[in-house]
Amino acid sequence: MRFLSRSFIGWLLMLMAIGAAAPGWAQDGAAVFKLYCASCHAGAGNDRAPTRDVLGQLSPERILLALEKGAMQAQAAERSRAQRRAVAVYLAGKPFGADPLKPFPDSAFCANTGVKSVASLQAPAWNGWGVDKANTRFQPAAGAGIGAADVPALKLKWAFGLPGASSGGTQPVVAGGRLYFGNAEGDLFALDAKTGCILWRTEVEAGVRSAPVLGPRAGGGVTAYLGDQAANVYAIDAADGKILWKVKVDDYAQAAVTATPQLHGGVVYVPVSSREESKVGDPLYPCCAFRGSVVALDAATGQQAWKSYAIAQQAAPSGKNSAGTVIVGPSGAAIWNTPSIDEQRGLLYVGTGNNFSPPATATSDSVVAFSLKSGAMTVLRQFGPDDIWNASCRRPDREQAVCPVAESPDADFAASPVMVTTKTGQPLLVAGNKSGSVWALDPAAGGKTVWDQQVGQGGTGGGVLWGMAVGEDRVYVPNGFFDAKRPDAAGGLTALDLNTGRVLWSAPNPPCGARKPCKPSHAAAVSAMPGVVFSGTMDGQLYAYDAATGKIIWAYDSVQDYTTVNGVSAKGGSMSNAGPTLAGGMVYVQSGYAHHGAVIPGNVLLAFGVP
Ligand code: HEC
Question: In ligand 1, which atom is closest to the CA atom of 33?
């Protein structure tokens, strides 16, 4: 035993307490600090923040408390548990004293896994981000397991709490009677989809925002593929949570996989994004060199088949700011959405985001196609040129060199384009972005615009943020718009005719009344089934609408404290990013969100069903 240092024993105790299937990830606390904390705490950028020396006088428990429950919750929300603990130990210069919180009681784990010890792809299923490879987010009747007439009777069946989290989980995925989802803590869970007991839990290296996408494994079994916030992609055995392979798809320090990968023909297609645009508050930061990309990996081995950047040229110096920091570019065109597959044309489609720094490129804020085989990219259409946006643009001390135009729209395509065919056989690629516009492009005619429609006011957090749904020849468009001076005018949900783009109905929000905070914007992705569309709001309301009329047929206020099946105290809050998962007579939704203008943190996954 004398060979083992005290910190190593502390580390072992911590792993035992966490009880994860994976060995935990050896995180470099110094690297986490440099990347995510130093801009404010190194003593240069932000004079309100305690210096590195002051932080060094705190205990690791005290620092962890600030990150998980205190003043630094927002700053640490996208760091995994392992990263938060590593940075706490690094700053304090000593290991944790006692066992850190044991996250789950033994009773949270399934007692008898029975047939559920076998992972299968059996329906009812909601696989990946968008239920199908076209990203329609429309669950047909057989998969939904309930009809429109059942929806008003939906009741909460159980709730599952995420310890230490300020945001709920990712888009839940259902197959073979299991529910799979990840969270910002770096956990991936497999639960019994009926009862919510834990079948297994695996810890990955960084936080997870990507949903898993499941596929059959050669030789038998099911593999779950997902990405993390450090741009790692994992293949995980869906039976027991063991990591089969792990590949880093982008070495850039700020690269991340936020969207869900797509799986097609034995290849995992991974969209790569980055929050580098948010780092630019620091005048010493040499903004920006990240380029969005799609990476194709062999599903069996993780070997890279191709990697194709949304910006062809690498960044080079383009000027200096007043602090003398070199500004580099072009950059950006991050890919925040899950690819949609067009098997007939051998293509996948994604939308790209804004440029992060000058010069502007012809591939930002665009709908683009990548060849499934070679990765060659073509632009179907660019929707707004010269959209150079970063976190310095809205500041009074904005500098021309890094943000040339203060009013840059920040009109990312964060939502997946949806690839569909109308009843008359017309193929359409339906795409919407943060400007609040929706377009239908003809992929058979080089992306020619068939129709376009403005559904409401857009903006940095507004317009179409995370996802539309398409079904029954309708396009359901959520609007994330919010103006603090007119909260009641926020958001809303609109249905368009898929063939013409004509507005069929537009449903405003019910008044907030005494509800506080009042932020009824619809930033989260929506989900639909025959006759019903579900949409959640930034202030935690979940609505089900009659798909034909827009009338609200069921509503649930998720901002509550929950007694959870896994013994973790949990509360609901803002809904953003992922939307409801409809499968097997159940509706699963995450509640609680702490970034992108969200107003109520929370840490719960809710499961509704009919009695
Ligand atoms: C955008 C700037 C910013 C970033 C990034 C940031 N912090 Fe802070 N931090 C602050 C400010 C400002 C305060 C003082 C907050 C207050 O007093 O309310 C603070 C306070 C703290 C405290 C003391 C909290 C307390 O309760 O006394 C800790 C510990 C801390 N930060 C750790 C971190 C760590 C670790 C990171 C990186 C994961 C980080 N911070 C990232 C600005 C930042």
Answer: 37
